[in-house]
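Morning. Coffee machine broken again, so started the prediction first thing and wrote up yesterday's gels while waiting. Chain of 286 residues, entered below exactly as on the submission form.
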Amino acid sequence: MRSIQGYVQLSFAMATVGSTVVAGKWMADIGPFTANALRLGIALPAFVLALRWSRQTIPRLCRHDRWLLVAQAAAGSVGFTAFLLLGLRLTSAATAGVITGTLPVVALLLSVLLLGERPGWRAWLAVVLAAGGVLYMTAGAQGGSSLEGNLLVGAAVVCEGIFILLNRRLRRPLSPLVLSTVLVALGLIASLIPAAIELLAAPQLPTEALLGAVYYAFVPTFAGFIAWYAGSARVGANEVSLFTAVAPLAAMVLSVVLLGETLSERQFVGAGFVVAAIVFQALQRK
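Came back before lunch.
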């Protein structure tokens, strides 16, 4: 029963990750920093309340860790969302969902290039499968997709991969809740000035964009975080990584149901390769 609860929580968490591309489509008409400031500003009080409820506190950190957290916030809390929203203006949500699903493989590749790690052959097969799936899908960009949009979404994934690597360089480990609260706060601070400039140029905030920001803040950013770590506590580490495959599949389904997009054969094939890559990487971790 404990494992089943974990499976449900992990599936829900990854489904919310997939749904970020739908929320991003709703927010695509406003500036990326404005959208990011909205979702972080809405999510921050929820994280602070959760921190107080759990009786956790933010510890005193050394200068190295403080600057590392600033870099993490720039890459993960700001860079990822900004590039994703810009990319979603030019590509379909389904395609963007598949590309963001390559995050575990991109993080692995960055660890090889930047940290000199030496993964096994299954990990390299995962890299080839993920790259092949995305290239095949991008080569025949159609159904609202474009090469420029796909590259911007790819840049978002690289930002998130850098965020993951930087987290491994912290000298003082932080609990997931503490880390998330700090990064949400830093990301909000970093987004305020660019958001103000965007609002001066285009002060309109469509209702759909506001609803998208509220959803992004409470569901993927907060509820998804809680569900992921709750599920991870109930399921073995090897099984946890397999559930990241739910994200690109959820993105494709939700893009059809909520946005009315039409899926192409290339998108199906690309998603299949990306899911296979995630499975092979999970086997490598095992």
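Residues 2-285 form one domain. Going to sketch it on the whiteboard this afternoon.
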